Amino acid sequence: MRIGFIGLGRMGANMVRRLMRDGHEVVAYNRTAERTREIAGEGADGAYSIEELVGKLEKPRHVWVMVPAGDATEAQIEELLGHLEPGDAIIDGGNTNFHDDQRRHPLLKEKGVDYVDAGVSGGIWGLANGFCLMVGGEPEPVKRLEPVFLSLAPKGGYLHVGGPGAGHYVKMVHNGIEYGLMQAYAEGFEIMHASDYALDLQAISKLWNRGSVVRSWLLELMETALEQDQDLKHLKGWVADSGEGRWTVQEAIDRDVPAPVITLSLLMRLRSRQDDSYGGKVLAALRNEFGGHAVKTG
Q1: 236 an active-site residue?
Q2: Is 110 a catalytic residue?
Q3: Collapsing DSSP states into helix, strand and coil, what is residue 223?
């Protein structure tokens, strides 16, 4: 099938490569022309404007948007709508808030344009292993686009999870769970790193992936990360969040669902960005004031 693709970052470019490898024709566009030229050199049909991209597609047109969630996606969809016609479809594959999907779907439907949301997991390994796809939207456009989803996903790695917004909703919770898993591994490995035993942490991560109940792909990645430097001296313990963890916590609060592990894992990411937190200073000052406990100054 022929599809337009907007956004050729690390994941987007690999998604285009996987589609082409499975026989799809891709018209590719990126705001930075160098990325477009690069993927065009690999067999994609390069476009250097949204108008050109739409013009190279047959009706009904299908355009996958893979740019950062929020303002960038909003602007890209708005520009696309200026060129699309009834019967065409937009697939948002970014980490969009599901509330935005619920808002966009009826607006696009009024114009006759189908809207499909696709939560995508797989990172930079998706080209080789496939991308896990959590797809939301009305049945007809989702079914029409299934050849694309099936090519991107590994066997069993694609599911139409529900109506408009459901794909990004499930991906949001997926990422919230990911926060908790990563935090648990981080704490466990820090305990072992601080112990009096001379532990080979890479060997332990490899061991745990052979029959242990905590085995996982994340643990396999841990093994790789520890291969060169078990002290991870080349890294700073500064951890970003792309929004889904926050949204998961907010949804848990809105639904009266206790989610302490995911909530605390998000808060630990916020703490990682503080070199010396004011809250920590307050705790030290109070312990010193009421009990004369030792403090560090400087």
Answers
A1: no
A2: no
A3: helix
